[in-house]
Design brief:
This is Flagellar biosynthetic protein FliR. With 252 residues, the protein is an all-alpha fold. Helix content is 74%, strand content 2%.
């Protein structure tokens, strides 16, 4: 009994799988350490089996050319995944900004599960963003954007570095803007609290107002953080749309 496999289709399947795996390793929410590597490999294999029939079969002339194609697909997947990661890092940056202004950064630590180096709000916002992406089916939009890249960037095509640079610049700018939009109101309140404590110290030097600064700012942060936290679902939806536009813009 002889079993023959179509070499061209198998090579195309491997190339598609390499791009998808590289993307899932970098792009949220799939980059979360809570998702086992086995699940990522199974998801990438299933997506590769679904996408491979719609892509053109690429049969390189030699093994060296095939290795070059594998490396190129891995770079495309990493580049596209990094675009998505930059867009969604606005949520973690907003949490870190709130921690800094609210005094929670003194308890900063490293979370090996989420790979986040931050305090309480940075971890809370990052984990909430991952949960919202799965609950609201936002991850399906991210996957659909990845699948659409195979139409604009077929196997063997190279990623335009100029478009990637422009997309990264736009994504970083949007990240800072989204960070200020998320944490801006609370940061303004905490800044005014610092100004009020400074004026109180000038009026009554004997009163150690800054000794009350940390408890007061922590109280204000815990009281008002719910306002920004309730806006996270709409913010995550907006960021998902931006990440999809970034992926499509680079691959078009």
């Amino acid at each position: 009994m002889t079993l023959s496999l179509p070499l061209g289709a198998l090579e195309s399947l491997m190339l598609v799988g390499v791009r998808i795996v590289a993307f899932l390793v970098v792009a949220p929410p799939f980059s979360h350490r809570g998702i086992p590597a086995t699940v990522k490999v199974m998801l990438a294999t299933g997506l590769a089996l679904a996408v491979a029939p719609r892509v053109a079969t690429t049969v390189p002339a030699s093994t060296g050319e095939y290795v070059v194609l594998l490396v190129g697909e891995a770079m495309i997947g990493v580049g596209l995944g990094f675009l998505v990661a930059v867009v969604f890092s606005a949520v973690q940056s907003a949490g870190s900004l709130i921690d800094l202004m609210g005094g929670f950064s003194l308890a900063q630590g490293f979370d090996p599960m989420t790979q986040v180096n931050g305090a309480q709000f940075a971890r809370l916002y990052q984990l909430t963003a991952v949960v919202i992406l799965f609950v609201s089916d936002g991850y399906q939009m991210v996957i659909s954007g990845l699948v659409r890249t195979f139409d604009a960037l077929p196997l063997g095509a190279s990623l335009d570095l100029s478009k990637l640079g422009d997309a990264l610049t736009t994504s970083v700018t949007g990240m800072f803007l989204a960070t200020l939009q998320i944490a801006g109101p609370l940061v303004v309140v905490l800044f005014l609290a610092d100004v009020g404590l400074g004026l109180l110290t000038r009026v009554a030097p004997a009163l150690n107002a800054f000794a009350l600064g940390f408890p007061l700012k922590i109280l204000l942060t815990l009281s008002l953080a719910s306002l920004t936290y309730l806006a996270l679902p709409r913010i995550i939806e907006n960021l998902t749309g931006r990440s999809l536009d970034a992926i499509i813009g680079v691959s078009s």
